[in-house]
Amino acid sequence: MLFIVPTPIGNLKDITLRALEALKEVDAVFCEDTRRTVNLLNHFKIQKKLFRYNEHDERSVAAAMAWLRSGKTAALVTDGGSPCISDPGRKLVALARSTGIKVSALPGPSAVIAAAAGSGLPADSFIFLGFLPRSRGKILKTLKAAFTLNKTVIVFESPHRLKKFLAMVREEFGPAITAVIAREISKIYEEWTGGAIDDTISRIEAAGDVKGEAVVLLRPPEKADTEEEEEETGTGSHRRTTDEEEEEAGEQGLS
Question: Which domains does the chain have, with CATH numbers?
Fold first, then answer.
């Protein structure tokens, strides 16, 4: 059996009782970085066999599957947050499920959910894009497609690319975008910066060097109800055509 176990993204007290129970009871822990995971386990006085799991190494994936096929249990963890969400684990989970190995996903710490909840932006539904592609063209193409849905868009961004990314969003999509930046969530220096994108950029620039990975939340300007209805039904363009036809008919004495 494979347990997907979320681990703290900042404060170690964020770990759940179920996560601790799973880590204590499994036969081994598959982890992203053994050094990070051993520190976590030591903090909670848990001794367990550790295996480094590398999603991009077929031998690592095969070794993990061999362990599970032997009937032994394992917990899959990453350096922080939930495995498989912009972190390693998807291949192993898919293989386990396809071969009949039971998989249990535990709820727990998540930077995405914490950022959505604390941003003040609409989060009844949102679009999570994880880490965006590196090229400007692909970034803009992805964001344009996401913004058409008129929902809050959430991405992960590294500290040394954050300012450049915000400037690009401002340049391409204009000042009506709302941008909220959540950094170091659940850590001592947790910081939230947000508002109109120009204000957010000014505050980030004034703060100097950015440290710690950031969760960026972007919200396009709200569309008017009539505009949304016209886009959904296509009635806007039809109505204009009808008006033009009636005007032309009147000029010709046909109405």
Answer: 2-105 (3.40.1010.10), 111-219 (3.30.950.10)
Q: What is the pLDDT along the chain (255 residues), one digit of tens a residue?
A: 999 999 999 999 999 999 999 999 999 999 999 999 999 999 999 999 999 999 999 999 999 999 999 999 999 999 999 999 999 999 999 999 999 999 999 999 999 999 999 999 999 999 999 999 999 999 999 999 999 999 999 999 999 999 999 999 999 999 999 999 999 999 998 999 999 999 999 999 998 888 888 999 999 998 754 455 555 555 554 444 444 444 444 444 433
C-alpha–C-alpha distance, residues 145 and 164, integer Å: 20
Where do the H-state alpha helices sit in 70-161?
90-98, 111-118, 136-147
Beta strands in 158-254 (DSSP E): 178-183, 191-196, 214-219
